[in-house]
Amino acid sequence: MKIQGVLSNISSITDLGGFDPVWLFLVVGGVMFILGFAGCIGALRENTFLLKFFSVFLGIIFFLELTAGVLAFVFKDWIKDQLYFFINNNIRAYRDDIDLQNLIDFTQEYWQCCGAFGADDWNLNIYFNCTDSNASRERCGVPFSCCTKDPAEDVINTQCGYDARQKPEVDQQIVIYTKGCVPQFEKWLQDNLTIVAGIFIGIALLQIFGICLAQNLVSDIEAVRASW
């Protein structure tokens, strides 16, 4: 999958005012390089300015992460709405880019979901909607990634989602996933809350350890210089 193609397509379907997500990766990479350079050179050369810069910069990042976590908890409904908006825009652009299409298929297969909140969200796509004016063979269907998998099948049936939404809801549950990707993602978070929390706590402890280590080294260097 070509990451550049995915990112360029994502920038066109998100409400980011033309912001290209590639710049986000460049900024994050630049910050990591500067932070690592300051910490490494500061420790090797016993440069208190670089060590203080490293400590303060790391402290700012820690504070921003903490703030983002609190805001994410307070505005979780807004985040859910933005995720719903993002997925639905992806659904509209499903056939516009092969990389984005592969990304959506992977997501739906991995989470065992279909659409943002259900299979009917695929009505937003011009090829899958159920309107009478839609002459597509995929009318009232879903992508193959929404289909429940048969372990006995070695070859993927890319037509398994044809006419799936014309069936009664009980029959739909046999052939396709009827749960949306947003509820499935929430369920995954709840099921793996301990692991997710452990990862964030581990990252926070590493950052605090780095700050303390840098400050301790600065104190030692200044104490040695004061004794000269």
TrEMBL record:
Q: What Gene Ontology cellular-component terms does the record carry?
A: plasma membrane
| Location(s) in or outside the cell | Cell membrane; Membrane
Q: Got any disulfides in this one, which pairs?
A: 113-146, 114-130
Which coarse location class applies to the principal site listed for this UniProt protein? membrane
Q: Which Pfam families match?
A: Tetraspanin (PF00335)
Highest taxon above the source species:
Eukaryota
How does it sit in the bilayer?
A: Multi-pass membrane protein
Tell me what this protein is called. Tetraspanin
User: In the record, what lineage is assigned to the organism producing the protein?
Assistant: Eukaryota, Metazoa, Chordata, Craniata, Vertebrata
Record gene name: TSPAN5
